[in-house]
Fold:
Amino acid sequence: MENKIEVTLTEESKNQILQAITAVKILMPYLIKISESERKTIQQMDDGRKPFTEKARDYATRSEAINPGNALLVAAEHDLGLYSGLSIIENELTQLLEMVRDTKQLAGAEAYEVSRFVYMKAKMALKMKEPGMQAIVDELGKLYKMTSSSKSEVIAK
Structure:
């Protein structure tokens, strides 16, 4: 067994991180939640469609014949700026979320590996007639089977 990560996340540190996340949410009160049905019906602008959107807006500002009105052009300019800025923020948050998930997964895997080793040692101690081991093996065995069966159910779904 190799312990690749040895970190203690203190309650104080966790609270500071959560406060920082709350502060970010406060800085972005305009963030919204779109339902799945709405997500399917609205047009998506991705990086591939951004040049088209920028060029169309540019042409509309220079040609009265295709100008949808200054209010719409100003709104489109604000939306493009928001899209660009949020794309940068999204990239940073995606990287952070990936690192948090990977670190959480590794920490969980290491703790689980030690727990399985403890369970194996308890079963060996029971075979060696070590007093009090039956209750430990029974309890750990019940919990181990529960985690194994819930994992199977997730895979089956």
User: Anything to note?
Assistant: The radius of gyration is 27 Å. The chain has a mean pLDDT of 92. The chain has one domain: 34-156.
